[in-house]
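Reopening this ticket.

The earlier resolution said the output was attached, but the attachment link was broken on my side. Pasting everything inline this time so it's all in one place.
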Amino acid sequence: MFERFTKDAREVVQGAVAQAERAGARSIGAEHLLLALLDREGSRASFAFAALGLAERKDSLREALAGARRRAGLTRADADALAGLGIDVTEIVSRVEEAHGAGALSGDRRDTGGRPGRRTFEQDAKDVLEGALRAAVGRRDRRIGDEHLLLALTVRPGVPAEVLADHGVTQESLRRVLYGEGAAQAG
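Inline output:
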C-alpha cells in the first residue's frame, strides 16, 4: 500500500514514527499520525488546517492530545461514561501521578525490550491508514495523500477525531475545504 502514498503522506508516516520515538512510546498510534500532520507545511493537509483557521492554533491541538494521553487515551465520552458510574477519571489520574509521577498513565514508556528502533503500528493507526486508502479510492484518486490521512482521522472514533472536532475539523469541513463539497457555511 505504501507505494501508493504520495511523498507528503510517506513523510507523515515517518513523522509519526519520529513522534512515537520522541515520546518513548512502544508503538505508533493514530495520535502520532495527527501530531505528524500538524508538523507539515506546504501540503494539502496543512492547507486544510490553514483554511479552517488552525494554522495558529496547532499548539491547542497538541495540548488536547497530551491531555488525553495523560488520561490513558480516554476520550471525554469515555470519561463521562465512567463519571456516570461514579468514577472520577481526573481524580484517578491525579492520584496515580502523585504516586508514580506525571504522565504515568500515558503509556509513553521507554522501550525495555523487543527489536531496538522498531515500533509497530497500533490498530487505530492501521485503521487510519486503511481509511486513507478508502478515502482516496472513494475520490478516485490514484495516490494516497496526507489529506486522505487527515480525512481518515476525522471518521475513526477516538481521541484524534474528538480533538479535531473540538477544533472545528470534521469530515464535512475538510471535504468542503479540500474539494468544495457541501454547502458553504457563514462563520
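Reporter confirms the inline version is readable. The first strand starts at residue 27 and ends at 28. The two ends are 38 Å apart (CA to CA).
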